[in-house]
Amino acid sequence: MPAAGPRRIAVLGAGSWGTTFAKILADSARESAHARAEPIGRTVALWGRSSPAMDHTARTRVNDRYVPGIRLPERLEITADLAAAVRGADLVVLAVPAQSLRAQLTAVAGHLERDAVVLSLAKGLERDTGLRMSEVVAEELGRATGLGPRHWRARTCVLSGPNLAMEIAEEQPTASVVAAPATDLATWVAHACRTRYFRPYTNTDVVGTEIGGVVKNVIALGVGIADGRHFGENSKASIITRGLAETTRLALALGGRLETLSGLAGLGDLVATCSSPLSRNRTAGRLLGLGLTPAEVQEEMTQTAEGIKSAPAVLALARRHGVDMPITEAVVAILREEITIDDVAPLLLGREIKSEGTAP
């Protein structure tokens, strides 16, 4: 890692969060250079798969589909050429949907610098394997580059927290967490994305940070279902609170830390995702609560609601570790159409009287 921070950063994925995070990185480079009274020495590239869309965004400096009305920095490179974006980058940011990540890594591997650092923004579990995104990165890049998973495990970070993209694109102040295997690596990445409106904190709990980001999508589906059923604030607050207990139980069973789940990557992200109408997962849940089938919800949504695809993998992971997750079970039963929406109310808060704590 260069002591002064990354010289070149590639952001892969030009959806709402990828585009917004590329803006954060470009703004950070400009602000840092201004503070030191130096020329901007860092380049940031944003890659998307659609050449017409990226050409339009490069020309207008606006990503109309995903972050309409937000002008992107002039110095931000915008391209549909994957090799050009990744070549020479010492920080590569993965902002693609969780279920597309492995295939994208295969394409990236041939252009990736051996000593590059990888930062995952995706919040999901791989459907077929149940792996967290950092595990997918280490496994797939280890295989595709021939360097082995250990090499990439030590160089892979994750970013999580309350990350509603449109609010951040509008430069509303927010905080997030960069988690990495080592403190110096997390700090190096955090400095590269610190701006006057975006404040990254750091930790070394990759497991807890990722689990918080994964399960909150499932809980947000449950809150959305409650909203669609016209349940009140008491119901939704109860689901959020018990959802945090479920998330914490799973994280601790996998080796995560309690304090992570009470922080930005746990409680912070959960509250934002469950409360905001900007949340894709809450919106998808609301459509389910209104009576749409899972297939109809998928057709209605213009962006990926990661919780729909990750929920069965979360439940399978919980069962393997003996973790009780009644809200997740209820959401999965709805997605599998094993129960009707009329049957969901008693299932969202569990079935037995027990202590309020996070223990099973």
Task: Write a concise keyword list for the protein shown above.
single chain, 360 residues, alpha/beta, Rossmann fold, N-(1-d-carboxylethyl)-l-norvaline Dehydrogenase, domain 2, eight-stranded mixed beta sheet, 16 helices, Glycerol-3-phosphate dehydrogenase [NAD(P)+], lipid biosynthesis
Describe what you observe in this structure.
- The protein folds into 2 domains: 8-204, NAD(P)-binding Rossmann-like Domain (Rossmann fold), CATH 3.40.50.720; 208-349, N-(1-d-carboxylethyl)-l-norvaline Dehydrogenase, domain 2 (Orthogonal Bundle), CATH 1.10.1040.
- It is built from 16 helices and 8 strands.
- The chain has helices at 16-36, 51-60, 82-86, 101-109, 133-145, 149-153, 165-169, 183-192, 206-228, 233-253, 258-261, 264-275, 280-289, 294-300, 306-320, 326-335, and strands spanning 8-12, 43-47, 77-79, 91-94, 117-120, 156-160, 174-179, 198-203.
- It is globular.
- The termini are far apart.
- The model has no long low-confidence stretch (mean pLDDT 94).
Q: In the residues, how many domains can be counted? A: 2
Radius of gyration: 20 Å
**CATH architecture assignment of the largest domain:** 3-Layer(aba) Sandwich
Helical content (DSSP H or I, runs of 4+) = 40-55%
Number of strands: 8
Residue ranges: pLDDT <50 for 5 or more in a row? none
The CATH topology of the largest domain comes to Rossmann fold
What is the average of the pLDDT values? 94
Principal-axis shape equals globular
**Binned strand content:** 5-15%
